[in-house]
Amino acid sequence: MTHSPSPRYALDRRTLLRGALGAGLGVGLGTRPTGAAESGRVAFKSDPFTLGVASGDPAADGFVLWTRLAPEPLKARGGMSSPPVEVTVEIADDPAMTRIVRTMTKTARLELAHSVHAEIEGLAPGRDYFYRFRAGDAESGVGRARTLPAPGEAPAQIRFAAAGCQRWEDGYYTAWRAIADDKLDFVFHYGDYIYEYAHTDVTGRDRQPAPRTMPADFQACFTLTDYRRRYALYKTDADLQAAHASCPFLPSFDDHEIANNWAADSDPKHTPADAFLFRRAMALQAWYEHMPVRRAQLPRGPDVGAYRGFRLGALLDVAVLDTRQYRSRQPCGDGFLAGCAEADAEGRTMLGAAQEQWLAERLAQTPATWQVLAQQVMFAQFDWRGFPFVKEAAAPVFDLDTWNGATAGREHVLAMLQAARIANPVVLTGDLHRALALEVRRDWRDPASPCAAVEFLSTSISSAGDGPASEADRATMLRNNPHLKFFSDQRGYTRHTVTPAQWQADFRIVDSTYEPGRPVNTAQTLLVEAGRPGLISQ
Hints:
Residues 160-507 form the PhoD-like phosphatase metallophosphatase domain. It comes from Rhodopseudomonas palustris. This is Alkaline phosphatase. Residues 51-147 form the Phospholipase D N-terminal domain. By secondary structure, the protein is α+β, with helices and mostly antiparallel strands. The protein has two domains: 53-145, Sandwich (Immunoglobulin-like); 148-516, Purple Acid Phosphatase, chain A, domain 2 (4-Layer Sandwich). The protein has eight helices and 26 strands. The chain has helices at residues 13-24, 174-182, 224-235, 238-246, 273-290, 353-365, 407-419, 471-480; strands spanning 53-59, 62-68, 85-92, 100-108, 115-120, 128-135, 138-139, 143-146, 158-163, 186-189, 202-203, 208-209, 249-251, 308-312, 316-320, 336-337, 370-374, 398-399, 425-429, 435-441, 451-457, 484-488, 492-498, 502-510, 520-529, 532-537. A hairpin with a 2-residue loop joins β6 (128-135) and β7 (138-139). α2 (174-182) runs parallel beside α4 (238-246), α3 (224-235) runs parallel beside α5 (273-290) and α6 (353-365) packs parallel to α7. The model is unreliable at 1-13 and 23-37 (pLDDT under 50).
């Protein structure tokens, strides 16, 4: 007689692979190293802080402080030898670092690319702090961090930016310098911090010479060394370093941190799951090593707990979501398509069951005036007909890499918002290299339909380069999408100013990414009044 294995002990190939990645590869994939050489002081021949400093994942009593020792950042080991290195972290309450309030020592190890993640606690809420690192005879620059408001406190104002999509070859990071100058409370980075593509001398759909290029030996990222070198190159940019040093980041990731349009355990090239999961493990370890995130975000093989929440007193609750790791694979072969019935199949998801449950519980418990869903891909329905790269069609054309490829998942989230009686839901998005502001309506084609939320989709820092859509394209999209209130095809970011009475979104646009230091201006300001869902142009 044949017996089926008990569900308790049944293991499929993916479960076994995850076990091998998380345990069999040991310290190389993010577990705590054991038996390593004792750490000590070293003398550096050149500056080990070439990648700058950063803070992130703030709390009311602290934050994470990050750096990575890399005197030769583009080398395989960053120019470091194998022994661990002691790194001193100093925190002060003044920018001149004359009033040191906390000192601690961390160990930078080769197994984590000599990165440092110092989780700071016990500080005062709602105030600025300043920090620096020391290693051997070297000293880093000074960064500014800020703690969140105390629980229950109602701050008069919170200012932050949403930004991402920063392909190196597509242009300069002028927008990051503008963000640094804004002196914000935090930055939500929605993803595409790096791009995994190989070196190229040209960029854009018209294949024009790239404003800047990667070294010629930068091939497409597959190994841990590939991903580490890619992050190191991007982090050498002075404007990006200035932004990181200016305020805490809430880092997320999208697709290009691993592979374009990946979904769960697969990529668009249909790479076998075992091979893809090894690649995903390499990519996520490199992401952790270069982001100011907590040890809770340390990957276990190909898996990482990236979704998490931040409460800014009684004003703002931010749920950072993960729309890649647990999603259904894109329907109908992916792409911009019309008439994909598979997209509407019941059971399709963007968040997965566990993350949906976590979000529903968080929404039910939030006391904040504003509830933010900070995520990666477009949430609202959107018809792309009329845009140059979209073929003509009789029916609306949807991007199936977005929530339009899993409409049941979107309905679940809208039902959560309604069940929790969320009065002021705001969705923050990126990925599309364009800036959009939309009203998320129950019937997206009916302007009289109830507005369930608003969505601010930030354009790219540099990806896609210069090349705005024509006025004809814009007119077609506005006609096909009555819930669309703003559209721009230029580079930049979105700056948000939140008070108990209103939400203000400034769409900041870079004059050009092909030359460094070009002007940054506000193209459009939109408002949301608390308790009155909908967008108001200013």
